């Protein structure tokens, strides 16, 4: 009895092993619910739906990690707007390379605007990014006039619709390299340590001569950068730029960050947990779809999983205090 | 120790909650599929689920499936989202269904996945809302878009005595079919009714009622001499009708739109609306599943088709690859009680 309890406690306290168990558990349940679900190629291909969320969630997680109620609600709008700019650039005769550069620069710029509002002017992140979310979405709608933009060259679909070694290209060549890069920055550089310190204790960080506004500014810019990368994937997947593709993405990004173990108060959490959470959410929603579960239920199940994860987080926190 | 135990209990409880919720909603599905392995699977993806219109199509589809001996899968998202439609179609391809029909939200973004389904040997066709540029086999049309746009303006012109200022409240600005209907309305006005004029087209987020109410109020404030408001998306009708009612302008500002009988019934009864233009959604669902079966069995469509279960003949327009349900249905106080969607 005690042994089992110990084992359970262990699984539960290590976020990573908990998430892996949850993922396996979900895969097992889904395999029983539909004969078409469980196959290696299926599981690998399903990850294509997680690539955009994974990339955007990395930025979101870092911002939450940096504390001071940090949150970026504008990621979905940045994704929509930079995607629209990408579509417009292609349609106005820019080369693919030039269009990608324009898109990424605009993503960084939009992120910088968030950064200035929050880190330098001092607007609370929730309000600041809510405001820019509305502004960026309106701008995207204004630029398209509500009409989707198509007309991308055929070869462009390689990024979002084709596989290499059975793995979707956007996962293999974009999401995974970006994750490794971001993970390295956070774990192995002094900037990464600063992010955690700023997130844990803003005052202490400042006393340690860390330029906290600069750190936050960099994170918001990075989040914008990631959203613009994700927008290019989205354009290739749909072969269309739409002003509304990013709707709701910000909440999904917050959801996976929290589920992945990022403390909503900052300073605590691990990016690999966030990636596991993306896998959990993506595989769950795709698997439920394959099992023809009504989408109304799908939302409820995601809600259950999230609340469960937060309950667990509380449990871990209490345990650490005790 | 006891505190820890309590926490553990909470945890176990949470796990079992998820488990039961998962098991509960998948079990009956598994049973459904296991018995019907030999039946052809025909799927329909609506623009969103949980609204009477698409539920009526679902019911029509279910009836057809029972009559024709096929399995009908109705699978949609809770919000009208183009990327969600692509994801759902992807999951249907993985389930190896025989035919997929879809009410297209965005004709350009759905094309790649239609192509993918076709490569997988699945018959793909559109229903209710089309993507003419895609590789779909056919389009099951409720009525020609042109007829819908023209009919609405003609009926409105009758009410207004061929003259008046009109405001339009639509759904999302990105909805292909709504935009097309508005274009045809404008076309009809400019060619037939020189004394009628569309002042303004307003869009609503997700076609919500509250947002439609607000837009209609703004239209009446900005243009005090407005004579009519067209509520293009079915979901915007209640908001628009309420706005007119609240302003005490019932009878003074005409309200018309593409609303289902159940949606417009209270407003026809209270006199805010005289007529609504639509088609029989139940029959459309029925026809959709019938068409899927014909496609799966490799049967050709005739210029005029007898559809068992429908008491009228259905035209097939070969050049447009369109199966046409019929002319638009004009709903008024005489027939509003005949339909349950």
TrEMBL record, chain A:
User: In terms of domain of life, where is this protein from?
Assistant: Bacteria
Which keywords label this protein? Cell membrane, Membrane, Transmembrane, Transmembrane helix
Query: Is the keyword Transmembrane in the record?
Result: yes
Localization annotation: Cell membrane
TM spans (from-to):
12-34, 46-66, 73-90, 96-121, 133-155, 167-186, 219-239, 271-290, 296-317
Taking the first listed entry, what is the main subcellular location of this protein, grouped into a coarse class?
membrane
Q: How does it sit in the membrane?
A: Multi-pass membrane protein
Q: Which InterPro entries match?
A: ABC_transp_permease
Q: What is this protein called?
A: ABC transporter permease
Q: Which organism is it from?
A: Tissierella simiarum
TrEMBL record, chain B:
Alphabetized, the UniProt keywords read:
Signal
* Keyword Signal part of the UniProt annotation: yes
Q: Is Signal one of the keywords?
A: yes
Signal peptide: which range, if any? 1-23
Indicate the segments forming the Periplasmic binding protein domain, all copies.
42-300
Localization in the cell: Cell envelope
Pfam family of the protein (one):
Peripla_BP_4
- PROSITE patterns this protein is in? PROKAR_LIPOPROTEIN
Its recorded name reads Autoinducer 2 ABC transporter substrate-binding protein
What is the species of this protein? Tissierella simiarum
């Amino acid at each position: 009895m005690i042994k089992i309890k110990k084992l359970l406690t262990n699984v539960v306290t290590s976020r990573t092993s908990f998430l892996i168990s949850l993922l396996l558990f979900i895969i097992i349940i889904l395999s029983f619910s539909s004969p078409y679900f469980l196959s290696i190629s299926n599981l690998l291909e399903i990850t294509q739906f997680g690539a955009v969320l994974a990339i955007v969630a990395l930025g979101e997680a870092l911002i939450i990690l940096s504390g001071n109620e940090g949150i970026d609600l504008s990621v979905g709008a940045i994704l929509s707007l930079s995607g629209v700019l990408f579509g417009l650039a292609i349609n106005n005769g820019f080369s693919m390379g030039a269009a990608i550069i324009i898109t990424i620069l605009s993503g960084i710029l939009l992120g910088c605007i968030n950064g200035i509002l929050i880190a330098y002017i001092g607007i609370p992140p929730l309000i600041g990014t809510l405001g820019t979310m509305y502004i960026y979405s309106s701008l995207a709608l204004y630029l398209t006039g509500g009409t989707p933009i198509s007309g991308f060259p055929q070869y462009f679909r390689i990024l979002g619709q084709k596989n290499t070694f059975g793995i979707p290209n956007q996962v293999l060549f974009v999401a995974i390299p970006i994750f490794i890069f971001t993970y390295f920055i956070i774990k192995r550089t002094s900037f990464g340590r600063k992010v955690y310190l700023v997130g844990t204790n803003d005052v202490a960080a400042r006393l340690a001569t860390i330029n906290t506004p600069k750190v936050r500014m960099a994170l918001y810019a990075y989040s914008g950068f990631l959203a613009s990368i994700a927008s290019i994937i989205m354009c290739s997947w749909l072969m269309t730029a739409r002003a509304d593709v990013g709707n709701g993405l910000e909440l999904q990004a917050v959801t996976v960050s929290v589920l992945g173990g990022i403390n909503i108060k900052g300073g605590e959490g691990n990016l690999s947990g966030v990636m596991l959470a993306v896998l959990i959410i993506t595989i769950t929603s795709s698997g439920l779809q394959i099992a023809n579960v009504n989408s109304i239920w799908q939302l409820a199940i995601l809600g259950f999983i999230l609340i469960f994860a937060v309950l667990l987080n509380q449990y871990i926190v209490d345990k650490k205090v005790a | 120790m006891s505190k820890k135990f309590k926490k553990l209990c909470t945890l176990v409880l949470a796990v079992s909650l998820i488990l039961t919720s998962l098991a509960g909603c998948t079990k009956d599905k598994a049973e459904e599929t296991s018995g019907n392995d030999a039946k052809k699977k025909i799927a329909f993806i609506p623009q969103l689920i949980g609204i009477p219109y698409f539920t009526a199509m679902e019911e029509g589809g279910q009836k057809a499936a029972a009559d024709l001996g096929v399995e009908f899968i109705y699978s949609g998202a809770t919000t009208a989202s183009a990327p969600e439609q692509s994801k759902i179609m992807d999951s249907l391809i993985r389930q190896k269904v025989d035919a997929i029909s879809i009410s297209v939200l965005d004709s350009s973004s759905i094309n790649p996945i239609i192509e993918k389904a076709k490569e997988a040997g699945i018959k793909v066709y559109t229903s209710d809302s089309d993507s003419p540029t895609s590789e779909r086999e056919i389009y099951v049309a409720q009525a020609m878009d042109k007829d819908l746009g023209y009919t609405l303006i003609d009926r409105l012109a009758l009410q207004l005595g061929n003259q008046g200022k009109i405001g339009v409240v639509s759904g999302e600005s990105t909805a292909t079919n709504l935009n097309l209907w508005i274009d045809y309305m404008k076309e009809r006005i400019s060619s037939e009714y020189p004394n009628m004029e569309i002042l303004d087209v307003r869009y609503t987020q997700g076609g919500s009622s509250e947002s439609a109410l607000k837009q209609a109020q703004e239209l009446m404030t900005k243009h005090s001499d407005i004579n009519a408001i067209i509520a293009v998306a079915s979901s915007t009708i209640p908001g628009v009708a309420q706005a007119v009612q609240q302003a005490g302008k019932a009878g003074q500002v005409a309200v018309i739109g593409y609303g289902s009988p159940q949606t417009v019934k209270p407003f026809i009864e209270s006199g805010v609306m005289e007529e609504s233009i639509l088609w029989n959604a139940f029959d459309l669902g029925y026809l959709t599943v019938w068409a899927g079966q014909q496609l799966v069995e490799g049967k050709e469509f005739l210029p005029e088709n007898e559809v068992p279960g429908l008491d009228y003949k259905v035209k097939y327009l070969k050049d447009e690859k369109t199966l046409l349900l019929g002319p638009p249905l004009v709903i008024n106080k005489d027939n509003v009680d005949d339909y349950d969607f």
